[in-house]
Specification:
The chain is of the alpha+beta class. It contains eight helices and four strands; from the N terminus they run αααβααβααββα.
């Protein structure tokens, strides 16, 4: 039924739409067809021939030259944390080791990570205020910010879990974003720039080749 209805309406449109409208629609269809084929072919080329690897030095250089454009949209904390059951038998030792946070302590804690509900020890992560309070529900951000001037280790508890938190750095809303937070965005920007240059060079090469092989000629 749907197929029949579409064809019947299409046939009626050919009979009743003015020629100027039909010419305009035909042109739009042709343009869309061209763009569809070209875009599909470009995507094929980019997957087959385009190298999307971006050098770390290029990302850092872009960040340093464009810091003013990377502003935080939230407060961010550079942290490590451990969330573990409140009845853990090694709790005192884990708290002590996490507070000290030496290389040996990190190695020891990592060996016990099967006892943790969630953790990030070896890798410090940047996490925004909203996500941090989701991970540690009993955390009071105002109290945390005030106490950051005096210490970097915090412990929170509820009926089921203990939350251990180390804060290494803190950046406020609308200040310059640390490189680690925007690295992914920078990589995407540089890949897009590289892709535009790739297609620009491809367009030039295909045109030059067409002129040299007489597939296309320009007349004054």
């Amino acid at each position: 039924d749907n197929w029949a209805i579409k064809n019947l309406i299409y046939n009626q449109s050919i009979l009743h739409l003015h020629d100027s409208i039909q010419k305009k629609l035909t042109k739009m269809v042709e343009n869309y067809k061209f763009q569809l084929w070209i875009n599909t072919y470009r995507n094929y080329l980019s997957k087959s021939n385009f190298n999307n690897k971006i050098d770390s030095l290029d990302k850092i250089d872009y960040y340093n030259k464009n810091k003013i454009n990377f502003k935080l949209k939230n407060d961010f904390y550079n942290v490590s944390y451990i969330i573990l059951p409140s009845k853990n038998n090694n709790l005192k030792m884990i708290v002590s080791r996490f507070r000290n946070f030496s290389s040996n302590d990190i190695f020891f804690l990592d060996s016990l990570n099967y006892q943790f509900n969630e953790f990030t020890i070896n890798k410090k992560v940047w996490i925004n205020k909203n996500n941090l309070t989701k991970k540690i529900p009993s955390l009071n951000i105002s109290t945390l910010n005030y106490n950051l001037k005096k210490r970097d280790f915090f412990i929170f508890k509820d009926s089921l879990q203990v939350y251990l938190l180390k804060v290494f750095d803190f950046r406020k809303y609308n200040t310059t974003a640390p490189y680690e937070i925007v690295e992914g965005n920078i990589e995407r920007i540089l890949i897009n720039k590289k892709k535009l240059n790739f297609f620009k060079n491809f367009d030039k090469e295909i045109l030059d080749d067409a002129i040299q092989t007489k597939k296309i000629e320009f007349f004054p």
